[in-house]
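Need tokens for this chain, all 163 residues.
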Amino acid sequence: INAEYMGMAPGDNHFSWVHTNSVALLRWGSASSLWPLTFGLACCAIEMIHAYCSRYDLDRFGVIPRATPRQADVIIVAGTITNKMAPPMRKVWEEMNVPKYAISMGSCSNGGGYYHFSYSVVRGCHRVLPVDIYVPGCPPTAEALVYGIILLQRKIKSKAEFS
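Here are the structure tokens for all 163 residues:
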């Protein structure tokens, strides 16, 4: 086997090549099998459901929705978060396995939206749990959610979690 053909300089260790490729394989597997917990709270949930239907088909990206936090590794928060809903959402977040990621979908989830000045609305999902990807819009389109998931996959692939 020609070492220069495989991207190795003469004198490099073959173990480092195997280790690097196994880390890349783990990142690819982690990014290509996202199982989101769908947390639809308002009208953005309709667009989230639309993204799972046949036109956009998130299954082809390896995104398979789960109904329980113990099987999910991504939470998609879609809609207005009220003060009453924030503690249960935090509890669901804490029940998820590590590594876990969050996608905030829609202007109400991102920053309160039209209800920003209401006494009962949390002004952004980031106040309850750490958010990795923000999907803008009111309501955001299904294409925007698909793009947000692609961005999350890129973020996972570039993360130095397995090295």
